[in-house]
Description:
Distance between the termini: 44 Å
CATH architecture of one domain: 2-Layer Sandwich
Bound molecules: L-tyrosinamide
Strand content: 15-25%
Oligomer: single chain
Number of strands: 3
CATH class of one domain: Alpha Beta
Number of helices: 4
Radius of gyration: 20 Å
Helix content: 55-70%
Strand order of the largest sheet: 2-1-3
Amino acid sequence: MATKQDNDTVLARExxxxxxxxxxxxxxxxxxxxxxxxxxxxxxxxxxxxxxxATQIMLKVHRDGKGMCGVYPRDxxxxxxxxxxxxxxxxxxxxxxxxxEV
Length: 102
Ligand code: TYC
């Protein structure tokens, strides 16, 4: 007969085998043409940041070439990359948005 202890041992082994899903950082890249104000608005709208935080991130991208806007599961990160890229292209800006596995 299986005891409670047996069940606990099996469950513990199953839990050890399950890796957490990979997470992805979403970055904006600097360029010479996209207006700063447009980038701030993008960060507020798609990454749910307040205006001050969005401005800090935009300035970091402007200074360092790249800046992290958030960390998400793969499907959500990928959707953000697509939506941000489509919005930038529609507005006529070359802004690049990319994702990298953590
Ligand atoms: N470098 C741009 C400018 O001077 C501003 C900018 C910031 C562009 C962040 C893209 O991801 C970016 N207008």
